[in-house]
Amino acid sequence: MADLPGIVVTGASGRMGQMLARSIAASDRARLVACIEREGHPWIGRDIGECMGGAAMGVLVTDDPLEAFAKAQGVVDFTAPAATVGFAALAAQARLVHVIGTTGLEPADLEKLEAASRHAVIVRAGNMSLGVNLLVRMTQKIAAALDEDWDVEVVEAHHRMKVDAPSGTALMLGRAAAEGRGISLEDHMDSGRHGITGARKRGDIGFSAIRGGDVVGEHDVIFAADGERVVLRHLATDRGIFARGALRAVLWGQGQKPGQYDMMDVLGL
Ligand SMILES: NC(=O)c1ccc[n+]([C@@H]2O[C@H](COP(=O)([O-])OP(=O)(O)OC[C@H]3O[C@@H](n4cnc5c(N)ncnc54)[C@H](O)[C@@H]3O)[C@@H](O)[C@H]2O)c1
Ligand SMILES: O=C(O)C1=N[C@H](C(=O)O)CCC1
């Protein structure tokens, strides 16, 4: 048991944090060694299992990443951009594998992750599920086969508490379509239409976001031409799919060379 990689979960009280803590504690391939929450959080100092309303797991929630990282080989981080950038610097110092599920990262955040990845392994993906990563590959292939007579639209739906848009997954899918077409997403992205927008610009990749209720995550990639449409769809109904991918990623990262990786690397897609 002590030989299994020790894993820290950040943002442990969150929707994903709780799912991750349960999944890692139940795994026979990893050990849950610490849980982190932000300073002042009511769960600090308490057992994570009891905080989640179950039996004690013998793992305390702390607000001290240095103390937590000292006993670990990996950290799984689904929090918020500012928190993730801070954890990346500390994980790199401790040479931990840092699996990042956090979305909404800005270019300045990505530069800091790049710096951290010179010293340690980072695996980052806007969606860690097998199904979405397959959809990314399919989107890339279909976009490569179709010309600009086919308009590409990415439509996503998430729960009412989601703070970023377009979703990390939608951006992965849009980027895959752009790569398939050999264009840059940044130059062809059309997001958040409103008012007199004018006709759709040929070659643009459109994004629409729905927010409501408890939707775990739904994504459509629509290829629309005159007289026909191809629609690729992924429906997430259980956050366990993201936790499974994250656990696979943190195990895969053990022993890899420092650098930035994604779920395509982990899944071999
Ligand atoms: N990549 C994927 O597969 C995937 C899947 C689901 C969610 N996500 C992303 O994961 C992130 C979290 O999603 P969620 O629904 O769990 O959100 P959430 O708001 O339920 O949880 C986030 C948690 O992070 C904690 N946190 C924030 N700052 C912190 C800090 N400085 N130190 C410690 N903890 C801190 C918060 O207190 C909260 O408990 C979002 O960016 C979301 O888009 C990614
Ligand atoms: O619940 C969320 O937030 C999700 N975020 C990821 C995204 O932004 O795509 C993955 C799906 C769930």
Characterise the protein shown here.
This protein has 269 residues and is of the alpha/beta class. The protein has helices at 15-26, 48-51, 65-69, 81-93, 107-116, 130-145, 168-181, 185-188, 240-252, 263-267, and strands spanning 6-10, 31-36, 61-62, 74-77, 97-100, 121-124, 151-158, 189-191, 205-211, 217-225, 228-236, 259-261. It has a 7-stranded parallel β-sheet with strand order 3-2-1-4-5-6-12, sandwiched between helices. It has a 5-stranded mixed β-sheet with strand order 8-9-7-10-11. α1 crosses α9 (240-252), α4 runs parallel beside α5 (107-116) and α6 (130-145) runs parallel beside α7 (168-181). The radius of gyration is 19 Å and the shape is elongated. The mean pLDDT is 98. The site of nicotinamide-adenine-dinucleotide (NAD) has 24 residues, from α1. Residues 131-267 form the Dihydrodipicolinate reductase C-terminal domain. One of its GO terms (molecular function) is 4-hydroxy-tetrahydrodipicolinate reductase.
